[in-house]
Amino acid sequence: xxxxxxxxxxxxxxxxIGTEWMLxxxxxSESFNTMTASWGCLxxxxxxxxxxxxxxxxxxxxDFAERSDTLTLAFLGTSAQARRAYxxxxxxxxxxxxxxxxxxxxPVGLPGGGVGFAQARLVLECRKLYSDSLRADRFADSSLxxxxxxxxxxxxxxxxAEIRAAYAGDGCWAGATxx
Length: 179
Description:
By secondary structure, the chain is of the alpha+beta class. The chain has a single domain, classed as Pnp Oxidase, Chain A. It is built from four helices and ten strands, in the order βαββββαβααββββ. Strands 1, 2, 3, 4, 5, 6, 9 and 10 form an eight-stranded antiparallel β-sheet that branches. A two-stranded antiparallel ribbon has the order 7-8. A hairpin with a 2-residue loop joins strand 4 and strand 5. This is Flavin reductase. InterPro entries: Flavin_Rdtase-like_dom, Flavoredoxin, Split_barrel_FMN-bd. GO terms for molecular function: FMN binding; oxidoreductase activity, acting on the CH-NH group of donors, NAD or NADP as acceptor.
């Protein structure tokens, strides 16, 4: 992976997060968990480039995020193999399965202590700055409650994290190409 200037990124973040999706990973290369996310934000806050990440407390990744100062966001691309990895990591718990073995993802330790993946086209290594919990009584639009409860899960915790480094990869999966 090649380190790149965060300010040089040209991704359409709406497409990258909302359509491509991303893997949110917390922990160290010795012990980590990753989950798929299609909600989040990238922007500028407190005079820093930041990512805003939403993780439900019942997710294993949440436990790692609470114990770690570092989070990574990995964008795998749009190949069929990337989509299968996103779908698997979003529907299986690291408590019950080895997501790396099941998906073929190859973890890569990053200089700031985070974990990326060899197949990623882009990895953002982030340092937590702030966290809080969403509260149902604070929704100005009550229809947003439909995203919570029952099978959907509890209210998210929100993490604001400074993007400390960005790494470009080839986004390739042994013989697969991104569309």
